[in-house]
Design goal:
two-stranded antiparallel sheet, 59% helix, alpha/beta, MtfA_fam, aminopeptidase activity, DgsA anti-repressor MtfA, four-stranded mixed β-sheet, 14 helices, Cyclin A, domain 1
C-alpha cells in the first residue's frame, strides 16, 4: 500500500507542477506582467562577514533592502561567483572584493528576475585597464562576446563607473545589459519573456524617428545611446539605476516601461537613489 500511495503522491506533484508552470503562471504573467514568484531558496547561501561588509560599503541599494531581501541578494551574489569563472589578464590578481562588486552589480540589475543565472556567458575576463580586443581589432573598455561566452571588463573603467554614481556611465550595467538583451531574444523563461515584452515598449523610443529626435534634442541620454538598439537599451538602464529621479521626471512613461521590463519595485530603487550618494 505504501508504494501506490507514493506513486499517487508523485503523480499529484507532477500534475500540480505542470498546472502551475504551464497554465497558471502564463495567465498570471499575461495579467500582471511579472512571474508568479521571484525568490524561493530552501537553504539560501550566505556570504562571509567580510564579503557582506563589501556589499554594505559598495552598494547603497543592498543597504536599504529588507532583511529578507538582503538574504536573497547575498544568495544570488554567492551563486553568481560560484557559477562563473573569473580570469585576470596581464598579471591582474582577481581579488574577492572585485568578484563581490561585479556580482553585486549583476545581482542589482537582475534582482527583479527569477531566472538570473544566464548561460550565454561562462567567463568574466578582467583587464587592468583598456585592452586590445581580437574580436574587432580595437581597444575596448568592456565587451560581451556571445560566441566565446565571455564578458570582459577594464577594471579601471568598471570601478570608475561603479564609484561615480551621478554621471550615468556604468560599465558593469552597460555590458551586463547586452547579455540580458541577447538572453531575452533566445530564451522562453518567464523573466526573459517579460524583459522582451518590456523591451518592445522601450525600443519604440529609438525606432520612432520623432521620439528619437526628441530624446537627442533633450540631451538627457548621451549620444552613444543612439548608435543602435543594443546601445540604446544599455544606456537607458545606466540612467535608470544612476539617476532614477531625474529619469522619472524627464521621461515618466519610458521610466515605467523600464520598471516593467526588469520587474523592479520602485520602492527598492527610490528609498536610496544612487544619484544622491557622492
Amino acid at each position: 500500500m505504501v508504494f501506490p500511495f507514493f506513486v499517487l503522491l508523485l503523480f499529484g506533484f507532477v500534475l500540480l507542477t505542470v498546472l502551475v508552470f504551464r497554465i497558471i503562471e502564463p495567465t498570471y504573467m499575461l495579467i500582471f506582467h511579472k512571474p508568479l514568484y521571484l525568490y524561493f531558496y530552501l537553504y539560501p547561501k550566505k556570504l562571509t562577514s567580510e564579503q557582506r561588509q563589501i556589499l554594505t560599503t559598495e552598494f547603497p541599494f543592498y543597504n536599504q533592502l529588507s532583511d529578507r531581501k538582503k538574504t536573497y541578494f547575498e544568495h544570488r551574489v554567492k551563486e553568481f561567483i560560484k557559477h562563473y569563472q573569473f580570469v585576470g589578464k596581464e598579471d591582474l590578481l582577481v581579488k574577492d572584493e572585485m568578484k563581490i562588486i561585479i556580482a553585486g552589480t549583476y545581482t542589482m540589475l537582475t534582482f527583479g528576475m527569477r531566472d538570473y543565472l544566464i548561460d550565454l556567458f561562462k567567463t568574466i575576463i578582467i583587464y587592468p585597464s583598456v585592452y586590445f580586443s581580437n574580436a574587432n581589432q580595437q581597444y575596448h573598455k568592456g565587451e560581451f562576446n556571445p560566441m566565446m561566452k565571455v564578458v570582459a571588463f577594464s577594471w579601471e573603467d568598471f570601478i570608475l563607473g561603479h564609484k561615480t554614481t551621478n554621471d550615468n556611465i556604468n560599465l558593469g550595467f552597460h555590458e551586463f545589459s547586452h547579455v540580458l538583451h541577447f538572453h531575452c531574444l533566445k530564451s522562453n523563461q518567464p523573466s526573459a519573456i517579460i524583459f522582451y515584452d518590456g523591451f518592445q515598449e522601450v525600443v519604440k523610443y529609438f525606432n520612432n524617428q520623432n521620439l528619437n529626435n526628441q530624446l537627442q534634442e533633450n540631451g538627457y541620454f548621451r549620444l552613444y545611446a543612439f548608435e543602435n538598439q543594443f546601445e540604446f537599451l544599455s544606456v537607458v538602464l545606466e540612467h535608470f539605476f544612476e539617476t532614477p529621479l531625474d529619469f522619472k521626471k524627464t521621461y515618466p512613461e519610458l521610466y515605467a516601461n523600464v520598471l516593467s521590463m526588469i520587474n523592479f519595485k520602485e520602492s527598492d530603487l527610490m528609498k536610496n537613489p544612487r544619484q544622491f550618494i557622492v
